[in-house]
Design goal:
single chain, mainly alpha, 3-stranded mixed sheet
Length: 124
């Protein structure tokens, strides 16, 4: 399995993609978000990016937050071996039902915090 840093970048890429799409096109705020997306894409391995783009084309996320027992995408129960893997820090698994990465790292609070930080640092 690859490092969790790549997964967090991939998670941010999903979030930023949705955020950019919700902003008025061509405005400074959207340009800043698009620049952030470009920077993230440069850091991610090509294989992960290719997977992300295939998922995005079908309007699906490439990585979701799991509760530790079921997939955050399709909500089906994950096999025992995968839930065990997910309990270890820094790990992520691939859902055998819907083919999306699952991670339990970073709490919702951290996630909300990073979204807040992002909004503050962006021009209005
Ligand atoms: Zn799934």
């Amino acid at each position: 399995m690859q490092s969790i840093e790549g997964m967090q970048d991939l998670y941010s890429l999903n979030w930023l993609g949705r955020f950019a799409a919700s902003l008025p096109a061509g405005k400074a705020r959207q340009k800043a978000v698009l620049a952030e997306i470009a920077a993230l894409r440069e850091r991610l391995p090509v294989s992960l990016l290719a997977f992300h783009d295939r998922q995005a084309k079908q309007k699906k996320p490439s990585v979701v937050r799991s509760n530790g027992t079921s997939c955050g995408g399709c909500h089906l129960r994950l096999p025992m071996g995968l839930t065990h893997e997910l309990r270890m820090p820094g790990r992520f698994v691939f859902c055998p039902h819907c083919s999306v990465f699952n991670t339990t790292d970073a709490s919702r609070a951290q996630e909300a915090e990073s979204e807040k930080t992002l909004k503050v640092s962006l021009p209005e």
